[in-house]
Amino acid sequence: MEMTVLSELRMRPVTADRWGWDASTTARLVLTGVVIFTLLVGANLATPLYPLLQARLGMTSLDVTVAFSSYVLALVGVLMVAGHWSDHIGRRAALVLAVLVGLVGGVIFANADTLVALSLGRALQGVAVGLATGASSAALRELLPQRPEWASRFTLLSSAGGVAAGPAIGGLLSLLPDPTRTPYYVHSAVLIAALIPLWLLKARPAIAPAEGPKPLKVLAPRKPSISRDARGAFWMAAATGFLSFAVFGFCLSLAPGYFASVVHADSRPLIGLLAGVTLGASALSQLLGARGRFVVPVALAVLGVSVVLVGAAAAWSSPWLLVAASITAGMGQGIAFRQVFNEVAGKVEASRHAQVISTVYVITYLGSAVPVIGLGLAVSALGLQAAVVGFTALCGVAALTLAAISLRSAVRS
Hints:
Elements: H1 5-10, H2 25-43, H3 50-57, H4 61-82, H5 85-89, H6 91-110, H7 115-143, H8 148-173, H9 182-200, H10 231-252, H11 255-263, H12 268-285, H13 295-312, H14 319-346, H15 353-366, H16 370-382, H17 384-412
Helix pairs in contact: 2-6, 2-7, 2-8, 2-9, 4-7, 4-15, 4-16, 6-7, 6-9, 7-8, 7-15, 8-12, 8-14, 10-14, 10-15, 10-17, 11-12, 12-14, 13-14, 13-17, 16-17
Subcellular location: Cell membrane
Transmembrane segments: 29-50, 62-82, 94-112, 124-144, 156-176, 182-201, 232-258, 270-288, 295-314, 320-341, 362-382, 388-407
Protein name: MFS family permease
């Protein structure tokens, strides 16, 4: 059955043949990973630029967290409303929509001259990532039906890699003229380059095509439901994800100012690199083959201790401790989240994979919004260093609590 992007969006097959790129499985894997990676790079280009944007627009620390959180809240809203769309319109159509919305969001953000415009651009970037999240995860799983663990690894590697690379790339591109706009123009060119092969691709049929005279009914929001067998794994994955993204949200919003005070430097490429260290370590951890019943509790314990040490680095004026703790925090998070993500993904039926995984990400991404807004308020009241110490201590306690719960479950099994 031949499908174009427009016919996929209408959920109706095309009657006439058309030329298309009949890509190999490897090419489809690469293209899917590149799309979600690139969208997440764009969503995080701003991390080292926030000090410049604060100066240009006269924003406070709370304003930065509001702009950052507008992205997360929009992303979460789309996951709740449209997390299942790619099951019905097809993975390719959902990714094309995501790239188009991401282009618009990036251009608006680049040219924003008020907090409202900045937040609108960020929100559209959130919509783009939300549309792509469930679609890319499900597409990778369908392309590797016999290797579900590697499908999860590719999903997390592309996602964490994109989030990690964003600040580093943003810092480097900010050395070019017009530093708050140029990174987004370069990124837009890359998105357009990815859109062309995606548009020309011969798409595979949707896994749950609409039937009847009103196909759009299947796109209506639906209440998330998890099978009884998958509930324990779902809540463990969601809780681990929420905590992980609370730490990531800190790294990508207010951490650049904190890191600058620890290393006594204001180089944007350096600060962007430091902001991405935790996420880069998380991405690289997807290449490790850690196995065993006690992998999750050990990894969560490493995350808990490491994040507390990140908060202690300023008090001890130790850049090396900051870097080492950021790396081990990312490794612990990456290994733990991969294991719990694999478990829930393996227990969900294929026809509901995008919906359930999107629901995991709803809770996960809320970790980047709610705690980070609280951190922004704490900075206004207590100052940056005191607020960071309190925040990292809370995250450490939460990680060790999850480690204990996971250990009890591992011992029982």
